[in-house]
UniProtKB/TrEMBL annotation:
Signal peptide: none
Full protein name: Glucokinase
Protein family according to the UniProt entry: Belongs to the ROK (NagC/XylR) family.
PROSITE patterns membership: ROK (PS01125)
Listed GO CC annotations: cytoplasm
EC number(s) recorded for this UniProt protein: 2.7.1.2
InterPro entries: ATPase_NBD, ROK, ROK_cs, ROK_glcA
Length: 310
């Protein structure tokens, strides 16, 4: 039996690599920028080159697990709008270069949820859901210890749940009003720009050359009224998404991950309050927590895919 497995998390901004031993202990990790030009064609070669640079002997690798930002069905990538991919067979594209047929693929949020269920905030739980709030919004669902993919590989694509709004914003998927447009890092900035149009007071955010989601959360924590109103609205949308997860899959734990989750308990408390205001009472004991593995959840879960789909 070969001693190592790879977990690889392909995101819209970066590609994260983790080399693990058979007990899923992380040996080393690194990342490279994601080059999504030319419909993401360069990504395949970039992945192979980076693996070969860090792994002189590919014969020591049992398999490769991938998390990708889009629906996946039986290892086949249906679509990744942030990468420019459509109908991609990663195993077919990489097996010869990596000299390995054991290449398994899952939706990035599903894979991150699996990582948190294996070794993170939901360790030991069999029914887990996760929302990843980063450049976009993904969600992953683990039911009875297994990933839920669905008929078309789109189970858990809550980032494209339509949220009723007066001024819905266009999403990269082609729809308007997706959760991603109001709950991701970009979505929180969207809320800020809309609310700022009618805001009459002064905000400390005006002192920034560029207002990102971190600046908004920092200002809200310091009592800035505009920032608080932005965070409160975003928390409602995230709480609403948690409510949908609770009545459709009934998880014992909902894990909030991604860059936005770095706001910590300040965000979790607001989301939990919105969730309990909306929740169907039999699912009221669902707990909302911050991810423990951070940006590493995807590589842990991807490595775990190699083991469970061995």
């Amino acid at each position: 039996m070969k001693p190592y497995v790879y977990g690889i998390d392909i995101g819209g901004t970066s590609i994260k690599f983790g080399l693990f031993n058979r007990q899923l202990q992380l040996e080393k990790k690194w990342e490279i920028p994601t080059n999504s030009s030319n419909n993401g064609e360069s990504i395949f070669g970039d992945i192979v080159d980076s693996i070969k640079m860090h792994t002189p002997d590919l014969s020591q690798i049992e398999g490769y697990g991938f998390g990708v930002p889009g629906p996946v069905l039986k290892n086949y990538v249906q679509m990744c709008v942030n990468l420019g991919w459509k109908n991609v067979d990663l195993q077919d594209r990489l097996r010869d270069e990596l000299k390995n047929d054991h290449i398994v693929v899952g939706n990035d949020a599903n894979v991150a949820a699996l990582g948190e269920a294996f070794l993170g905030a939901a360790k030991g739980r069999k029914n887990v859901a996760m929302l990843t709030l980063g450049t976009g919004v993904g969600s992953g669902i683990v039911v009875d210890g297994r990933l839920l993919e669905g008929h078309n590989g789109s189970a858990g694509e809550l980032g494209h749940l339509t949220i009723p709004q007066e001024q819905p914003i266009a999403c990269n998927c082609g729809k308007k009003g997706c959760l991603e447009t109001v709950a991701s890092a970009t979505g929180i900035r969207n809320i800020y720009h809309r609310l700022n149009e009618d805001f009459t007071g002064h905000s400390t955010l005006y002192d920034n050359d560029y207002v990102d989601s971190k600046a908004i959360f920092d200002a809200a924590k310091a009592g800035d009224k505009l920032a608080i109103s932005v965070v409160d609205e975003a928390a409602y949308y995230i709480g609403y998404a948690c409510h949908v997860l609770s009545v459709t899959t009934d998880p014992s734990v909902i894990v909030i991950g991604g860059g936005v989750s770095k706001a910590g308990e300040f965000l979790i408390e607001k989301v939990t309050n919105e969730f309990h205001r909306l929740v169907f009472q039999p699912t009221n004991d669902t707990v909302i927590v911050t991810a423990q593995l951070g940006n590493d959840a995807g590589i842990y879960g991807a490595a775990g895919l190699v083991k469970i789909r061995g």
